[in-house]
């Protein structure tokens, strides 16, 4: 395909060039399909605090976590299921998950952590199912050159492409997640992920369950 910036041959009219430029709509590709934000859950739901367990549980764990953090994935895959079974599901613990993406650039192809945080929140009521799917598949998308492998994970999870596209395009969602991260940094003054706040005590790193349980009431 000829680059539209090259000089026209003498036999090509100005009108033909204008028609060609309108048809191409840009350099070498079709225009991006418009996104429909109405396919997303409400912004209030997507930006709400994400928690599991009874609101009246005597113990509270807040995890500050990143989807591109291998130690965060290890905790969620190896330790969290037992924590949920023995304590969260029995109303002994309220577990709060806070997204703390380690990248925050406007291009999601180079900000996969932020992209994953956005896509998880676009799962609506299935947020924690999405978190599990993203962490379990971390090796398949982390380090990729764009969001396509991550999008493939979300399609396998059950998210439609229109939802994925609208989710990625939502600057309101992106800004809301980054604002929550900033609020958490100010509140907890943490430097690393994962960081756990267990009944007010800060634990840094992928902790075994007995260490966490030792801080329960």
Give a brief rundown of this model.
The protein contains ten helices and five strands. It has 217 residues and is α+β, with helices and mostly antiparallel strands. The protein starts with 13 loop residues before the first helix and ends with a helix.
How does this structure look, described?
There is one protein chain. The chain is an alpha+beta fold. The chain has 2 domains: 1-31, no CATH class; 44-213, Glutaredoxin (3-Layer(aba) Sandwich). It has helices at 14-24, 43-46, 70-88, 112-121, 127-136, 138-141, 148-157, 161-169, 171-188, 209-213, and strands at residues 50-52, 59-65, 93-99, 195-198, 201-204. β4 and β5 (201-204) form a beta hairpin. The chain is globular.
**Global Rg:** 22 Å
CATH superfamily grouping of the largest domain: Glutaredoxin
Going by CATH, the architecture of the largest domain would be 3-Layer(aba) Sandwich
CATH classification class of the largest domain: Alpha Beta
Mean pLDDT across all amino acids: 88
CA-CA gap between termini: 69 Å
* Whole-number count of domains: 2
Q: Tally the helices: what do you get?
A: 10
Structural class: alpha+beta
